[in-house]
Design goal:
This protein has 204 residues and is an alpha/beta fold. The protein contains 6 helices and 7 strands, in the order βαβαβαβαβαββα.
C-alpha cells in the first residue's frame, strides 16, 4: 500500500474522502464549513454504496467528484471494500470521513487508513452503540443524549473519542424529534472535530 502522506499544515489542505449512503447532511455541513473557510480541507471524492443517494446529487450540484461503488457488484465484502480503498488512494486521500455510511468497514480499511477514519454517532458513546441509537436512548429513559465524533477502529463505535456534544431529552420527545435536535449539533461539531484532528496528524 502507498505510504500515508506527511502533511505540511502551513501549506497543505487536508484531502478528504467522504463515504455516504443517503442524503449526506453531515457531508453537506462539512462542505459548507470548507466553503465558509472554517475548515482548511478539500473534499476530493464522495463515494456512496447507494447510487440513488441524495448526497451524490448534492456533490454533482457543487461540482465535487463523486462515484458509487455497489457491494452486489463484487464477489465478497473484502473485494467491495478494496475497491473503495483503491478509489480513495487514487485520489490521494489523507482522511476518510464517514457521513451516514451504513456499512461496517472491512479489516483491510484499517491497514490502509489506520487512525485516518472518522465517524459521527448520534449518542454519547460508549452508550447506545450501533443502529437506532436515538430510540435506544428513549427506551432506556436517559435525560441527556447527544453525539460523538470518534476515530473508527475495527470494533463498532469503539474508537477514541474526539469530541462530544450533549442534547437534553425532552419529556415529549419522539425518536424523530430527538434525532433532529441531535443532527443539528452533529452539523456543527463534526467540522470542528476534523479541524482539531488535522493538527494531530503530523504528530503521529
Amino acid at each position: 500500500m502507498p505510504p500515508q502522506r506527511v502533511l505540511s499544515l502551513n501549506n497543505d489542505k487536508i484531502r478528504l474522502g467522504v463515504l455516504i449512503s443517503g442524503r449526506g447532511s453531515n457531508f453537506q455541513a462539512i462542505h459548507a464549513a470548507i466553503q465558509n473557510q472554517e475548515l482548511s480541507a478539500s473534499i476530493e471524492i464522495v463515494i456512496s454504496n447507494n447510487p440513488a443517494a441524495n448526497g451524490l446529487k448534492y456533490a454533482e450540484k457543487h461540482h465535487l467528484k463523486k462515484t458509487s461503488i455497489i457491494e452486489k457488484d463484487y464477489d465478497s465484502k473484502k473485494l467491495f471494500n478494496e475497491a473503495i480503498i483503491k478509489t480513495l488512494q487514487n485520489h490521494k486521500i489523507d482522511l476518510v470521513i464517514l457521513a451516514g455510511y451504513m456499512r461496517i468497514l472491512d479489516t483491510c480499511f484499517f491497514k490502509s487508513y489506520k487512525n485516518r477514519i472518522l465517524n459521527i454517532h448520534p449518542s454519547l458513546l460508549p452508550s447506545f452503540k450501533g443502529l437506532n441509537a436515538q430510540k435506544q436512548a428513549l427506551d432506556f429513559g436517559v435525560k441527556i443524549s447527544g453525539c460523538t465524533v470518534h476515530v473508527v477502529t475495527e470494533k463498532l463505535d469503539d474508537g477514541p473519542i474526539l469530541k462530544q456534544v450533549s442534547v437534553p431529552v425532552l419529556k415529549n420527545d419522539t425518536e424523530n424529534t430527538l434525532s433532529n435536535r441531535i443532527l443539528e449539533q452533529e452539523h456543527k461539531v463534526y467540522s470542528q472535530a476534523i479541524k482539531e484532528y488535522i493538527k494531530t496528524l503530523n504528530k503521529e
